[in-house]
Amino acid sequence: MLNSTLPKQVRAHAFISGKVQGVGYRYSTMNAAKNLGLNGWVRNLADNRVEAVFEGVTEVVEEMIRWCHGGPTNAIVKDVQVEYSEVEGLQGFEIVS
């Protein structure tokens, strides 16, 4: 029997631009996501953006997206673009290349 009161799960695919490479953004993102209990991954892109995928309860994913707008201390975030889709069932959170 399905429990309709289970929180909705969502997948957010984020692209973060600004001064987000060389400032510990990926490691801080991984730590924040793990602390929130989210699954997914984060990586640097060749165009100096950071790309991340977060899977989890909608409200928690939204909290993580808000975090991305600030990032770690030395980051200067100019823009965060997010696309939402169905969860793929990722396990854990890691930095990928």
Determine the structural class based on helices, strands and strand pairing: alpha+beta
Number of domains: 1
Please indicate the percent range of residues in DSSP E strands (runs of 2 or more): 35-45%
What string, H for helix and E for strand, traces the elements in order? EHEEHEE
Q: Which fold name is given in CATH as the topology?
A: Alpha-Beta Plaits
Question: Which blocks of ≥5 consecutive residues have pLDDT under 50?
Answer: none
Total of DSSP H or I helical runs spanning 4+ residues: 2
The count of β-strands is 5
Supply the CATH architecture. 2-Layer Sandwich
Estimated radius of gyration? 13 Å
Query: For the residues shown, what is the average pLDDT?
Result: 95
Main sheet: strand order: 4-1-3-2-5
What summary fits the major beta sheet?
5 strands, mixed
Shape descriptor reads globular
Tell me the distance between the termini: 40 Å
Instruction: Kindly provide the name of the CATH class.
Output: Alpha Beta
What fraction, in percent, of the residue positions are helical? 10-25%
Descriptive key words:
five-stranded mixed sheet; Alpha-Beta Plaits; alpha+beta; globular; 2 helices; 97 residues; 24% helix
List the helices and strands and how they pair.
Elements: E1 9-19, H1 25-36, E2 39-44, E3 50-57, H2 58-68, E4 76-85, E5 93-95
Parallel strand pairs: 2-5
Antiparallel strand pairs: 1-3, 1-4, 2-3
Helix pairs in contact: 1-2
